[in-house]
Write a structure and sequence with these properties.
single chain, alpha+beta, 17 strands, rod-shaped
Length: about 425
């Protein structure tokens, strides 16, 4: 640091030295102020003011890897006073205060994206240990600068030490807080800065992604140390919350899968039930088949199954006539069964069904029944077997005249229909 173009007004007295209207150039900026040195016996006193405007910050700070650690425009204003019997005592007693401002500055090796990169590395399996995190964080921190639109702070001079306090930073990517102390007695620096970023969607309750940057040593080349303990705490708490959320999501997925399985089972059972009901409603009704008679046994005289009722409507008189006819046949069979001899064969042929008579027959034409029940037969003779009409005609022609046969019921055909009379009429 060197001044150039220094101009001032000097006043000298036996016990007074005053520099007025001081003007100089420093780091391409302008320096102005005044200073007064007085003597009282063996002790001297120093007081003054100083203003710096537009100085290049990169010419005033130390360099790392042949690059300045900060850039920007520096403005400073302050005042000071002190006393002592020697120059070192005079400097050590200096006290005062002032303000400091940086505009359009960049603090190198403070890349705010380092936090997000370490978070992604932790998600990928980085061990949550201070040493591991510090190593990764430091390498990412040196890969970029922190841009500042403006930095404001207050200066306090006490005991020959200038302290930077109440730092306020206007930056979009990160926040910077902390303090710095410059010792004018040995020209050393001690600083404790905290770099913090907005976690966004990675935010957790109780911790923030932040790290402390410590600078200690000679003002020309201090050493940097990184404290990542707060950042490690944030990563650990975030990992714990992620595990809790993962377990909750897994539990929710299990519950949802169980619900879906129950619904699928219900719909399957409901579909199967509906299919079974539809199949039952469409299945045809199969009538029971009569059992086949054993070999050598005549078929039983089981009445034929009733024909299915027709759905079409019929005249009421026709239905009554058919019902009366069926009732009359049932009465006839009951009477015959009651008067049948004890030695009569068990298997009897049914009555010959009524036949529909053609239009060629005349009124009162009589057809004799072929029912063998009413024929007079010897007790020992076996029951005749019904034969076809053609065979019966040949048998009647060839057989000799037997005893007179009692005629069975007759079927009398009238113009209005078929009427059965029992016993046969004797006219």
């Amino acid at each position: 640091m060197a001044f150039s173009k220094f101009t001032s007004k000097l006043r000298l007295k036996p016990d007074l030295l005053r520099l007025e209207a001081v003007e100089a150039s420093l780091a391409e900026g302008r320096v102005s102020g005044q200073a007064t040195l007085t003597r009282s016996g063996p002790e001297a006193s120093l007081s003054g003011t100083v203003q710096v405007s537009g100085a290049r910050l990169e010419d005033l700070v130390w360099r790392q890897s042949d690059r300045a650690v900060a850039t920007g425009s520096l403005d400073l204003a302050g005042e000071f006073q002190g006393s002592g019997r020697s120059i070192s005592a005079l400097v050590a007693s200096l006290a005062g205060g002032g303000t400091l401002q940086l505009a359009d500055a960049e603090l190198r090796s403070m890349n705010p994206a380092a936090f997000d990169l370490v978070i992604r590395a932790a998600d990928a399996g980085l061990a949550l240990e201070d040493d591991k995190i510090r190593e990764v964080f430091a390498s990412q921190l040196d890969s970029g600068p922190l841009a500042l639109k403006r930095l404001d702070g207050s200066l306090a001079l006490n005991g020959g030490r200038i302290a930077l306090r109440n730092v306020a930073v206007d930056a979009e990517a990160a926040g910077l807080t902390g303090q710095a102390l410059v010792n004018l007695n040995d020209w050393t620096v001690e600083s404790d800065l905290t770099l913090k970023v907005d976690p966004g969607s990675d935010a957790v309750a109780g911790a923030e992604p932040q790290a402390a940057l410590l600078f200690t040593g000679p003002l020309s080349a201090p050493e940097r140390d990184i404290d990542v303990a707060p950042f490690t705490a944030f990563l650990t708490l975030r990992s714990f919350e992620q595990e809790v959320q993962r377990v909750e999501r897994l539990q929710a997925e299990i519950l949802e899968r169980d619900r879906l399985m129950r619904e699928v089972k219900y719909f399957r059972e409901e579909t199967l039930r509906r299919q079974q009901e539809r199949a039952a409603s469409l299945a045809p009704v199969v009538a029971p088949q009569p059992e086949a008679p054993a070999q050598g046994q005549s078929p039983a005289t089981t009445p034929a199954p009733a024909a299915p009722a027709r759905t079409e409507a019929k005249p009421e008189k026709a239905s009554d006539a058919i019902g009366d006819l069926l009732n009359f046949e049932t009465k006839i069979r009951s009477t015959l069964d009651a008067s049948r001899p004890a030695n009569a064969p068990a298997n009897l042929l049914p009555l010959e069904p009524a036949r529909e008579v053609g239009a060629g027959l005349q009124t009162q034409q009589v057809l004799e029944s072929g029912d063998p029940l009413l024929n007079t037969r010897p007790a020992t003779a076996p029951a005749p077997v019904a034969a076809a009409p053609s065979q019966r005609a040949r048998q009647e022609t060839a057989a000799p005249q037997a005893a007179p046969v009692q005629r069975g019921p007759r079927y009398v055909t009238d113009p209005n229909g078929l009427v059965i009379t029992y016993p046969a009429p004797r006219n």
